[in-house]
Amino acid sequence: MFIGRERELQSLERLYSKGTFQLPVIYGRRRVGKTAIIEQFTRSLPTVYFTAVEADSRVNLRNLSRELYAFEHPHSNPDAAPQYSDFYTAFEAAFELSRQRQVVFVIDEFPYLAKADPGVPSYLQALVDRNKDVCRLFLILCGSSLSFMKEQIFDEKSPLYGRRTAQLEVRPFDFFDSLPFLRGMSLQEAAEAYGMVGGIPLYLLQFEGGETIAKNVEACFLDPSSILYEEPVNLLKQEIQKASQYNAMLAAIAGGASQNNQIATAVGLTSTEITYYLKELQRLELVRREVPIIGGGRRATYRISDNLFRFWYRFVMPHRPTIERGITTRALAAVEGHMPEYMGPVFEEICTQWLWRRYTRGDLGFDFDDVGRWWGNDPRMRQEAEIDIVCRDGAATAAVGECKWRSEDFPAAELEKLMGRASLANAKPDVRYYAFSKTGFTDACRAFAEGRDDVRLVSFSEMASL
């Protein structure tokens, strides 16, 4: 099943239509669907598809030799393939194939190949420089190690720096693009599933439509044989050498520690000592550092940016000893008891995605540069205040929003509170107010908003019909 990714496919097809040498780089976290995009793109094109493995150079060279031989001799036994003497010679053969016709050459899991033979980037650099004007090779380098791909291709010290002709970062689907993977679920169940795993196709497909969320949690997260049970730990190990300290920090943040000193206390280190780990987690795009989108000046907070990691470190990791003994009741009770609270930030994320989609379509009626949160002191109320969603336009606020993932309707008092706080975030005179609700709105709230062009009440069911 291939869903979505129209923009990525269009980018590759546009490059291919030029009929010249191209070197697009495709990267993104594991399971996000990079290989599926490439397979869809190349399904009717002459293609040498080589997937590197985590093994020594001898194994990878043999596999590459087989793929090149199979391309030139499609009806022959690949076991009869002669082996090239080295990677340079094998790559040279691939370039030679494209002198008379356009050929796609895919090197998937490129980081494995470069680790097996550190000279690979230099070999490719030399061959690209020598052949790019006389061949029609469409060379795709694809990899899942974000840190490695950025260092080996995008860093100015890399031999391949400046050789790429395009780069495609394949990111997880947003909630709305994830819905086709969650057929058979109610809208609320689909949102909760997305909140647990994010927009990774393989993870979304683990959920069974027609089953309760509790049953899906048990099957997907509380069964040690399921692929999601060990997934965050395995992904972390692929990026860093010693994961124990990172595990502790992710667990602390998932448990509610959001500021530097709180995280440091939770893991038993000083604020200075955890700075390095936080920067690494940000580099891996597992944690994001946040400051108020307007005004700044407040102490930064940290959030786990990946839904799977946030859910797993919050609800699975603390209960692993009992889960592995077949006792799932405590973990399941923790999920059921805290799911509304857990879904709060997820619903904010979904509401933000909805705003971006509406803005892209040009039907919001106002402009903005970015969307984020605001928090700070309310001098009138003499207390700390927060605004869930702030649409920033330059140094001012174009719109503010309040998001409620609750089983009761959105009350008028919350809308009035939002309107009172907008000025704290340097609101424009014509600022817009958005109230987002999981269920709906009280009669008083609807009456308050009626007839006002600057107020918009948006229910979750309406959002999903976008």
What does this structure look like?
The protein is α/β, with parallel strands linked by helices and 466 residues long. It folds into 3 domains: 6-169, Rossmann fold (3-Layer(aba) Sandwich), CATH 3.40.50; 176-342, Arc Repressor Mutant, subunit A (Orthogonal Bundle), CATH 1.10.10; 364-464, 3-Layer(aba) Sandwich (Trna Endonuclease, Chain: A, domain 1). 45% of the residues lie in helices and 17% in strands. The protein contains 21 helices and 12 strands. It has helices at residues 6-16, 34-42, 57-72, 87-97, 110-116, 120-131, 146-154, 175-178, 187-197, 201-204, 213-221, 231-239, 244-254, 260-267, 274-283, 307-316, 320-323, 329-361, 412-421, 443-449, 460-464, and strands at residues 24-27, 47-51, 103-108, 137-143, 166-169, 287-290, 301-304, 370-378, 383-393, 396-404, 427-437, 455-459. A 5-stranded parallel beta sheet has the order 2-3-4-1-5, sandwiched between helices. Strands 8-9-10-11-12 form a 5-stranded mixed beta sheet, sandwiched between helices. Strands 6-7 form a two-stranded antiparallel ribbon. Strand 9 and strand 10 form a beta hairpin. Helix 9 (187-197) crosses helix 18 (329-361). The mean pLDDT is 93.
